[in-house]
Amino acid sequence: MLTPFVWYSTSMPYFRRILFCCTLIFSALAQASVEVEVSGVDGNEYANVMALLQIARLDENKSYAAYRVRYLHRQAPENIKKALRPYGYYQVDVNAQLETVDYGWSASYQVTLNAPVKISANSWKIQGDAADDKAFNTVMENIGLKQEQRFIHSTYEQAKSRLLSLASQRGYHDARLLKHDVEIDIDKNTAEIEVLFDSGQRYQYGKTTFKQDILDDKLLQRYVPFQPGEGYNTQELSQLQVALGDSGYFSHVQVTPKWSNADDNRVPVAVSSEPNFRNQYQYGVGYGTDTGARVSASLNRRWVNTMGHQLRGIMQLSQVESRVGANYTIPGQKPQSDYYQIRAEASDKDNEGQVNRLYRLGVSNVIAMNEWRREYGLSWQRDNFEIGESSGTSQFFIPQANWNYMTADGRLNIDKGFRFDVRLKAASEALLSDADMASLELGFKAIVPVTDRIRFLARTEAAATYIEDFDLLPPSLRFFAGGDNSVRGYAYEQLGPEDDTGTVIGGRYLAVASAEIDYRFKENWRIALFTDIGNSMIEPNEKLKQSIGFGVRWISPIGSVRLDLAQAIDEPGTPWRLHFTLGPDL
């Protein structure tokens, strides 16, 4: 009788039987690394194949047993076919090869996609209040699934998710998919889609209540961007939370729809909050090449009374100009964007022969709308001044209007954005002013990305003033050039017309332009090259002065810190000047 396995033969020496047994075991458990190659697919399809292909998830730097490699190789065609079905490929052929090589295993898979499944029927229906909702109509128009197009399962799932997400956002609290079927006919390579979405009724806003004890409820109700009975929208709840958070009154705000308390399809809204510290104190020490050393202190009383009035007082002492002032703010009809201000200011300035003591009172109304900001105001000011050979006391009552527009892709580290400013001022001798006066000021700044690391920055200013007797115009209403934020290479307000004593007396006109290019060589660090040109003038045809320079920028947590070295190339001896500034790029 023959034995079933040769290694049991009694004719084989004992040690040979042991050796033969070990050889079989080690050949079954031999370790080797695996290299995988997939061809015939790319893009998202390739990424999904590699994510689901188990043999491709083996580490090339490790060794694996032969039986495991062979098993995963046998599973690979099904892994690949499964990975491609979400992209509409149901007729996939896979030519699989597994070979032993010097370093271990080489697995290759040649994929033939063949014709994809195409949409033969595409039925999407909405019933309920959402059938007449324009937002849902927009979603349906851009659903991304059309007949005769390749059926991509993720697009289909995203379309359903968009309907449900929009329903949640717009208050269709009972919305559901009554039917959502896709029938795939593999033989015909077709997909039939049928979706029936029932939105139910749209919920409306109920009463909005505030849980706090520092402000009058009437003021807080003016922050609410919706009225009871209007259609629910989560974006408006977010707007309310952001507006209250930005108001300064509260340290924490939570806006919550009370779905469990909804009655007659009206959902009440509850706002809970924690009050901020009533007083905020700030102190600062700094230095700027325009102002010299400076110290400052401020008090911000976040609410003066239950009507939400706010008071901010500030005092600043510097080598060039010292001032003390206060702003009293009264919330408007829409407090998040509309407010009134009463301002009082006194300042004392002494800069290279320009001496001016200014007292100013003003009122203004400000409306901020997204990127736009508009301010209309009235101010009265009195100046006691000496400038060169001239001195005097002046009084002006000035109506003015300011418009500002700014858009940017960030606050501190800006790669793209621009800002535009317009200011109009006027005064009349018939109305509390020493002379008739009118002025227009224009400003523009832009930041344009050139590459991922290079930016181009441009800045222009232009201004003009009408007044018959220029000597009546105080320094605070004249135009000066030169300094950190004007024409670098020149001292602060030391570029312009001069009198017989050599003192810069300012001008009726102003023209300044700057071009700069900077390079980000390290995270939050940039180097820059720039040129500035400009002047203040009595007449608009006077010569402009130019400078060139270079600098370094650090994007700090509180803004851009800029150190520039500029050369005044139109001055005798072409002197160099150092400039140090801190603040946003726009």
3D architecture notes:
- Helix content is 15%, strand content 48%.
- It is mainly β.
- It folds into 4 domains: 18-112, Roll (Ubiquitin-like (UB roll)); 118-198, Ubiquitin-like (UB roll) (Roll), CATH 3.10.20; 204-275, Ubiquitin-like (UB roll); 279-583, Porin (Beta Barrel), CATH 2.40.160.50.
- The longest helix has 19 residues, at 66-84.
- The N and C termini lie far apart (98 Å).
Q: Order of strands in the sheet with the most strands?
A: 11-12-13-14-15-16-17-18-19-20-21-22-23-24-25-26
CATH superfamily of the largest domain: membrane protein fhac: a member of the omp85/tpsb transporter family
Provide the gyration radius in Å: 37 Å
How can the largest sheet be summarized?
16 strands, antiparallel
Give the mean pLDDT: 91
Total of domains: 4
**CATH fold description of the largest domain:** Porin
How would the global form be characterised? extended
User: How widely separated are the two ends?
Assistant: 98 Å
Estimated structural class: mainly beta
The CATH class label of the largest domain is: Mainly Beta
Residue stretches low in confidence (pLDDT < 50, at least 5 long) are 1-12, 17-30
| CATH 2nd-level architecture of the largest domain | Beta Barrel
Number of helices: 7
Helical residue percent band:
10-25%
According to DSSP, the number of beta strands is 26
Q: How much of the residues is beta strand, in percent?
A: over 45%
